[in-house]
Amino acid sequence: MNPYMILDFIRLSLKALSERRVRALLTTVGISIGPLVLVMMSSVVGGYSDYIVEKVTSLGQNAIAIFPNENYKISDEDLQFVRSIPEVAKAEPFYSIQGVLKRGTEEIKVSIFAVDYTLLFEAIGSLKISEGKIPSETEVLYSIVGRKIAFKDSGERCFTLNDVLTIDVPRIEGGKITGKKSLNIILGAILEEYGGALIVDPDSTIFLSPEAGRRLLGMRDWSGIFVLARDPSFVRTIVSTLRSKYEDRLRVIAFSAIAETISSVTSAIDFINFSTSLSAFAVAVAGTAATMITAVMERTREIGVMKAIGYTNSQILFMVLLESIMMSLIGGLVGISLGVFGAHILSSRGLSIRGIELTFVANPKITSNLIVQTMLLTISVGLVGGALPAYRASKIPPVVALRYE
Amino acid sequence: MVVLNSAKTALVELVDVCKEYRVGGVITMALKNVNFKVYEKDLVAIMGPSGSGKTTLLNMLGLLDRATSGKIVFDGQDVSKLSDRELANLRNTKLGFVFQTFNLINRLTVFENIELPLIPKGLPRNIRAEMVKDALIKVGGEMEWLKKRPNQLSGGQQQRVAIARAIVGRPAIILADEPTGNLDRMSAKTVIATLLELNKEGHTVVIVTHDPEVANCTQKIYVIRDGTIVGEYRPNPDESLIRKLSKD
Question: Which of A24, A192, A297, B180 is 20 to 30 A off residue A235, Cα-Cα?
Answer without folding.
Answer: A192
